[in-house]
Design brief:
The chain is an all-alpha fold. It is built from nine helices and no strands. The two termini are 37 Å apart.
Length: 209
């Protein structure tokens, strides 16, 4: 126990580094939106309308990273310690965050091409990895006792929430093979659930008998 305590540290640097990665990744998304060149007999709005796949992809990518950051922030209101293994697991999550602008660019450029279904599935797979990485960060920190000071009920409800995140994101990958519309609907549902994680946890606690 003494060795474990000696190898643990606070989470301030982990959170600061993570915030920096999130900020850079979410900013890179805009680079795939191109300023249209002037053309005779074409209005600006009509020219911008050609960018609709890029704009939709930008919104999807932005909200993906935003949801991930919100939940990362929520988890670390309860995770008060870290060690090298947690840093590594969190690093895997940041790797997925870093890849997200690339997956978004694929979606943007090939949404209307023959590669569209593959681009959508690739993005869905990236999204699933994000959910799995988020679950791994939380479950490892909880298992190691880095969440001390939070009630057992809240920890249990939070664990259920993030296990559900992995299962639901894997479901989205499977659905993406069969229906783009269903994929978008499930993505929107995922956003609604995880945009306010503390409210979902509170809702679980209110439903307890």
């Amino acid at each position: 126990m003494a060795d474990q305590a000696a190898n643990t540290r606070g989470t301030e640097r982990l959170e600061a580094f993570s915030d920096g990665v999130f900020a850079i990744a979410i900013t890179l998304l805009i680079l795939d939106i191109h300023v249209p060149d002037f053309k005779e007999n074409e209005t600006l709005m009509h020219s911008l309308s050609h960018e609709w796949p890029s704009i939709i992809a930008l919104l999807i990518g932005f909200f993906t990273i935003l949801i991930c950051w919100i939940n990362h922030h929520y988890m670390f209101t309860m995770i008060r310690q870290s060690n090298s293994k947690l840093l590594f697991i969190n690093g895997f999550k940041l790797l997925i965050v870093t890849i997200t602008p690339f997956a978004t660019a694929l979606l943007s450029r090939h949404m209307e091409t023959g590669w569209g279904p593959s681009a959508i599935t690739t993005y869905a797979f990236n999204f699933a990895l994000m959910g799995i990485a988020m679950t791994c960060v939380w479950c490892y920190a909880h298992f190691m006792g880095f969440t001390k000071g939070t009630s057992t009920e809240v920890l249990t409800a939070t664990t259920r929430l993030y296990i559900f995140a992995s299962l639901f994101s894997i479901t989205i990958v499977i659905v993406s093979y069969f229906s783009i519309a269903a994929w978008l609907i499930l993505f929107f549902i995922m956003f609604l659930i995880f945009v306010f994680p503390e409210k979902i946890v509170a809702w679980q606690l209110e439903r307890r008998p």
